[in-house]
Amino acid sequence: MKLDCIVIQFAKFPRVGGVKTRLKPLLGDDGCYQLHQQLVKRVNENLSESDFFNVLAVDQLGDQPLINELAKSSCLLLQEGEDLGERMKNAMYWGLKRAEKVIIVGSDCPLINTSHLNLVAEKLNDNSHVFIPAEDGGYVLIACTNVVPEIYQGVSWGTEKVMQQTREKLEQAKQETYYCESLWDVDRPEDYKRLMEVFTHWPNDE
Strands 53-58 and 75-78: what pairing? Predict the structure, then answer.
């Protein structure tokens, strides 16, 4: 019997020099590494407060303190695919074999919480896809009840065009889609400054 909903957190495996690279001029390699871990942990804690089955999907496996810690409470899944789109598509297929609804959440938005997940799951009752767009033109969450392969292909990942391109592909595929209110995530120097202003005691600010 399938679950009602699975939540999959997407994260890059923490590695110095390989995460949050757009913030390198501001934070340096080690600062980017630390921030990435803080965001992955914060998002994981927020998602774990929900009643949904939680999975942490990373792009490689290995012995790493944070991943080892999170693996105690979240099932680990290895992302598979040549680019982000293919990896998300494959994770959706994996999830929909096990649940009626699948939600994929990035690890860049510290604001995502149980209320967002509950709203998304509710909207999936009447829509095949639900998104929480990001203010920078991407999205922080994608959820679905069926896979439309086209929306994971030919998308300019990491740019301000992601949400618009995805929306157009969904319209062409005639999918009922709901778009939640946008949230901001942490990718650019201006995002980091906003993070410090909103969470004045980051990373321990609740």
Answer: parallel
